[in-house]
Specification:
Blueprint (H helix, E strand, L loop, with lengths): L42 H11 L2 E8 L2 E8 L2 E8 L4 H4 L9 E7 L9 H12 L1 E3 L4 H20 L15 H21 L6 E5 L6 H8 L4 E5 L7 H4 L5 H8 L4 E4 L2 H15 L3 E4 L2 E6 L2 E7 L6 H8 L2 H13 L4 E8 L6 H14 L7 E8 L32 E3 L12 E3 L4 H13 L2 H17 L2 H15 L7 E5 L6 E5 L4 E2 L2 H9 L4 E5 L17 H11 L4 E6 L4 H7 L7 E4 L4 E3 L7 E2 L9 H14 L4 E4 L4 E4 L5 H18 L5 E6 L2 E6 L4 H14 L6 E6 L2 H15 L8 E7 L8 E3 L2 H17 L16
Parallel strand pairs: 1-4, 1-6, 4-5, 6-7, 7-8, 8-11, 12-13, 14-15, 18-30, 19-20, 19-28, 20-21, 28-29, 29-30
Antiparallel strand pairs: 2-3, 9-10, 10-11, 16-17, 21-22, 22-23, 24-25, 25-27, 26-27
Helix pairs in contact: 4-5, 5-6, 12-13, 16-23, 17-23, 19-20, 21-22
Length: about 800
C-alpha cells in the first residue's frame, strides 16, 4: 500500500483540496485503481460503484485486532495472521448492521521488516480489511512508551510527575512524536476513507489529536471518539502544557464518548474553564456548541462479549478446568480477584485487606482463599478460560442450583455505576475493603441470588454489541445535519477547527455592506456596547479613541442616525461618550433615551413601580456574599447580578439558583427576570432593546424619513430582541420594500441575525469601512433637515 506517512509530519496544511485521493481498493501490489479517473470503464467501474455504495465504518485504534507470526517455508520466511478474538475493536463489530463493511487502522503487534511491509499491508487489506501503520521503532518508543504510557497514563490517573518515581515530566520531543504518530494514523485513514459516506471511530488516549488532522482535511468527516481510560478533573488536566491542543482536537469530533458521567463531567469542566465553552442538555443528550458545530457527549460503559464467553464455556478444556478447580477448592470459600497488571489497580491494597480479614476473623484461616488473576492490558477477555466463576455452566440445567455471587468493586472504576448490586468500596480504605469481603462471605444466599440475577440481566443486555450499536446510532444522529451547513476551516496547526454555519447565516462582508450603504439615504445604525464595541475581558470599559473617532465620523453624515443601545446605566454612557455630540444613547435596555449630547434624557413612557427592588436587593446581596467574585450593579430601573469573575462552574450554578429564587418571589410583580451572559437581571416589563428599535423606526417613518438602511449589531441574548424586532418590521412591511437590512451578531452562534462578525475588532473594522464611505461622498448641503429629538 502507498503511504504518505513520513513527510511533513507537523504541517496540517499539506492536504490541498485538489490532490487526488488515494483509492479505497488496491487491485494488486504496486497497481492502483484510480476510481475517480473517467477513463476507467467496464467491470472495474462496476465494482467500484458497488464498493463505494456500501456502508462502512473505519475503526482506528492503537493496535489492530490481529495476531501475527512468521513461519519458515520453501520460499523463505512468510508472515501469517489471524484475528485476535479477545480484541475489543474486533468484538464491537457485532453491534453494526450485517451489511456494514468494517475497516481497521492501527499498528501490528509484531515488527515487520521494512522490505516486507508493502506485501504485508496488501495481504492484510485484502484478507482482513486492515490497514497497518508501520511506525519506526524510535517513534514507537517516544510515542507509546514515552508520552502515552509514562506521561499521559499516570497524569490521567492523578499522578503528577513531582518526582522521578511518579512518571516522567513533559518532554516536547515526546509530544512531537505523539503528534507525528497521530498524523501517520491520519494518513492511513485518508488512504481508504470515502469522506462523504464513511463513519470513523477513533479509540482511546493514544490518538487524541488525530481528529484535528482528519477534520482539517475533510471538514464534514463523520467522526467519533471513545476514551476507554479515565479523564482527570480540571485541576489535574490543566497542568498539561498541551491541554488546549488536546481539548480542541477532541472537539473536532462529532461525538465524544466516556465510560462514566464523572469522566464526561471532568471533560466538560475543562472545556468551560479553559476554552469558555458551556454545555446544554436537550432531550437527554449533552451537547457543546463549538464554532457552529454541536459536539455530542456519550456516556456508556463498555460491555463484554457474551457470545465469546458462551463459546469458551462449551469447550472440553473448560469442563476439565472446572473439575480441577472444584477439587482443588472443595469445601472452601473462594474470593476471586481479576485485575490488569497495572500500578493503579491497587492489587497490593487488596492483599492487605485480605490479610486484615484473616487477622480479625481467625476462623476463616484455611477456609477462605483469595485467587488473584492478573492480566496484561488488552487481553482481559482471555481470563474466562481460567476463571472459576463459570463452574455452574456445565451442570445439568434441570438440577442446576440457583446461581449466587457477590461482586466487590472499586467506586472509581468505570463499571461501578452500572453494577448497582455490587458492594462499592474505596480501595484506599483497607478496613472498608476487609469489611466488604466479610459482608460478601456472610451474606444470605437469597440476597446473593437476587444480586447475581440483577447483574446477569444487565451484562447480557448491555454487552459489547449493545455498546457499539448505541455509539454508532448516536454518531449517525450527531452527523445528521452535516450537509445542511456550510463549513470551512480556520486556525493553524493543532489549533485548527471548522466553522459550521446555517445556509442563510453568513459573515458580513465589508464590500457588500458598503455597497448598500452608498446607495441609501436614510440610515439607522444600532450598536450594542459590551461585547460588540468593547471586548468583554477589558477591565477599563471606557471606549478607545478609535471607537470615538469612528462613531463621530458616522454621526457627522447627515444621512445617518446612530444609536448605542446598551444595558449600561445612563451616567456611565453619558460620561464615556461625552465627546460624541450627535450620538444617540439608549441606556438600561431602553429605559432612558436621548438623541444627542445636548438633549435631555427621557424615560420610557411606562408608569413603572420600582418597589420590587426592596425585595430583590437583599436576595442578590445574599448570593453575592455566598459567591466569591460576584457583584451587584444597581441601575435606576434594574438590578443586575454579575458572576463573570466567579468560578465558572459555581457562578453558573448560583446564577441558575438565583434565577429560580427570583422568579418564585417576583411571580406577581410587573418585572422580567433574565439570565444573560454571566449575569442575572431584573427589570420592568415592557422595557427591552426590541422596543427601542420599534420606536426609532416608527419615529423615522412618522417624520417621513423611513429607514432604507438598517444596521444592527449585538452579541448578547438581549440583542436578540433587536433582531426579532427588525424581522417583525420586515414581516409587517414597516420598512420600505427596498430597505437594506443587516442584522449582525458577534461570534458564530445560533441567532436570529442573518450575519455575523467574529469579534469586536471586526466590528470596528467594518464601521471604519462605512466611515470611509461617508468621507468619500461629495459633501452636500442638506436641505429640509428633520429633527428627531423627543420622539423615542
Amino acid at each position: 500500500m502507498l503511504s504518505r506517512s513520513c513527510f511533513n509530519l507537523l504541517n496540517l496544511d499539506d492536504y490541498s483540496s485538489d490532490r487526488t485521493r488515494i483509492p479505497r481498493v488496491i487491485s494488486m501490489p504496486g497497481v492502483i485503481s484510480e476510481f475517480e479517473d473517467g477513463n476507467n470503464v467496464g467491470s472495474q467501474e462496476s465494482d467500484t460503484s458497488s464498493s463505494l455504495s456500501q456502508e462502512r465504518r473505519i475503526i482506528v485504534a492503537n493496535q489492530l485486532p490481529l495476531k501475527g507470526y512468521c513461519r519458515d517455508s520453501s520460499d523463505g520466511k512468510k508472515w501469517c495472521f489471524d484475528w485476535d478474538k479477545d480484541a475489543l475493536v474486533l468484538q464491537l463489530r457485532d453491534g453494526f448492521p450485517p451489511d456494514v463493511e468494517v475497516v481497521y487502522v492501527g499498528c501490528l503487534g509484531v515488527e515487520v521488516d521494512p522490505l516486507d511491509q508493502e506485501e504485508v499491508a496488501q495481504l492484510l487489506f485484502d484478507k482482513f480489511k486492515c490497514v497497518p501503520t508501520f511506525l519506526p521503532l524510535d517513534l514507537i518508543n517516544k510515542f507509546y512508551h514515552g508520552f502515552c504510557k509514562h506521561y499521559l497514563w499516570p497524569l490521567f490517573h492523578y499522578m503528577l510527575p513531582l518526582a522521578p518515581s511518579h512518571g516522567v515530566r513533559f518532554d516536547k520531543a515526546m509530544w512531537q512524536s505523539y503528534v507525528s504518530a497521530n498524523k501517520i494514523f491520519a494518513d492511513k485513514v485518508m488512504e481508504v476513507i470515502n469522506p462523504d459516506e464513511d463513519y470513523v471511530w477513533v479509540h482511546d488516549y493514544h490518538l487524541m489529536v488525530l481528529p484535528t488532522f482528519l477534520r482539517k482535511r475533510y471538514p464534514r468527516v463523520k467522526l467519533g471518539f471513545f476514551l476507554h481510560s479515565t479523564f482527570p478533573s480540571s485541576e489535574i488536566y490543566r497542568t498539561l502544557p498541551v491541554r488546549e491542543e488536546i481539548l480542541r482536537a477532541l472537539l473536532n469530533c462529532d461525538l465524544v464518548g466516556f465510560q462514566t458521567f464523572d469522566y464526561a463531567r471532568h471533560f466538560l469542566s475543562c472545556c468551560s474553564r479553559m476554552l469558555g465553552l458551556n454545555y446544554q442538555s436537550k432531550r437527554g443528550y449533552i451537547g457543546l456548541d463549538y464554532y457552529g458545530r454541536t459536539i455530542s457527549i456519550k456516556i456508556l460503559p463498555m460491555g463484554i462479549h457474551m457470545g465469546q464467553i458462551q463459546s469458551i464455556l462449551s469447550l472440553p478444556d473448560t469442563a476439565q478446568k472446572v473439575k480441577e478447580l472444584k477439587n482443588k477448592y472443595d469445601g472452601k470459600i473462594v474470593l476471586l480477584g481479576v485485575d490488569d497488571m497495572d500500578m493503579f489497580k491497587g492489587i497490593s491494597l487488596k492483599f492487605m485487606a485480605f490479610g486484615l480479614l484473616l487477622d480479625e476473623n481467625p476462623s476463616y484461616r484455611g477456609r477462605v482463599v483469595l485467587v488473584q488473576i492478573m492480566t496484561l492490558r488488552g487481553v482481559r477477555a482471555g481470563i474466562f478460560k481460567r476463571a472459576p466463576l463459570i463452574w455452574t455452566r456445565h451442570w445439568d440445567l434441570k438440577t442446576l442450583p440457583p446461581r449466587k455471587s457477590v461482586i466487590i468493586v472499586s467506586e472509581f472504576i468505570g463499571c461501578s455505576p452500572s453494577l448497582s448490586g455490587a458492594i462499592r468500596v474505596n480501595p484506599w480504605d483497607v478496613n472498608s475493603v476487609a469489611e466488604a469481603m466479610f459482608l460478601g462471605i456472610t451474606m444470605a444466599d437469597s440476597e446473593k441470588e437476587l444480586r447475581h440475577e440483577k447483574h446477569y440481566k444487565y451484562i447480557t443486555s448491555h454487552d459489547v454489541a449493545y455498546w457499539a450499536r448505541s455509539f454508532d446510532q448516536d454518531l449517525e444522529r450527531a452527523c445528521a445535519e452535516h450537509y445542511m451547513k456550510r463549513c470551512w476551516g480556520i486556525g493553524f496547526g493543532l489549533n485548527s477547527r471548522v466553522v459550521a454555519l446555517g445556509p442563510n447565516f453568513r459573515k458580513l462582508s465589508v464590500e457588500h455592506i458598503v455597497s448598500a450603504y452608498n446607495s441609501t439615504n436614510s440610515r439607522l445604525i444600532l450598536l450594542d456596547y459590551d461585547g460588540t464595541m468593547m471586548p468583554q475581558d477589558r477591565v477599563d470599559k471606557s471606549p478607545s479613541p478609535e471607537v470615538i473617532s469612528v462613531l463621530n465620523s458616522l454621526c457627522n453624515d447627515p444621512k445617518n442616525i446612530v444609536f448605542i443601545v446598551s444595558g449600561r446605566g445612563k451616567d456611565s454612557l453619558g460620561k464615556w461618550f461625552s465627546q460624541c455630540e450627535k450620538l444617540g444613547l439608549s441606556a438600561e435596555h431602553g429605559y432612558f433615551n436621548r438623541w444627542t449630547k445636548n438633549s435631555e434624557w427621557e424615560s420610557c413612557r411606562l408608569a413603572v413601580d420600582l418597589d420590587w427592588k426592596k425585595i430583590v436587593l437583599p436576595i442578590m446581596e445574599h448570593y453575592t456574599e455566598a459567591t466569591d467574585g460576584s457583584s451587584i450593579e444597581q441601575k435606576e430601573s434594574a438590578l443586575v447580578w454579575h458572576h463573570q469573575e466567579a468560578d465558572p462552574d459555581f457562578g453558573s450554578c448560583q446564577a441558575k439558583e438565583l434565577l429560580d429564587h427570583l422568579e418564585s418571589v417576583l411571580a406577581n410583580d410587573p418585572v422580567v427576570v433574565k439570565n444573560g451572559q454571566q449575569i442575572v437581571e431584573v427589570k420592568p416589563q415592557g422595557v427591552s432593546k426590541g422596543v427601542v428599535v420599534k420606536n426609532l423606526m416608527e419615529t423615522m417613518r412618522y417624520k417621513r424619513k423611513p429607514a432604507d438602511f438598517v444596521l444592527c449589531i449585538g452579541d448578547d441574548r438581549s440583542d436578540e430582541e433587536m433582531f426579532e424586532a427588525i424581522a417583525s418590521s420586515i414581516a409587517h412591511r414597516s420598512l420600505p420594500d427596498t430597505a437594506e437590512v443587516f442584522a449582525c451578531t458577534v461570534g458564530q452562534k445560533p441567532s436570529m441575525a442573518k450575519y455575523y462578525l467574529d469579534d469586536t475588532v471586526e466590528v470596528i473594522r467594518m464601521l471604519q469601512g462605512l466611515s470611509a464611505a461617508s468621507a468619500q461622498q461629495q459633501p452636500k448641503q442638506p436641505q429640509n433637515l428633520v429633527s428627531f429629538e423627543g420622539s423615542v
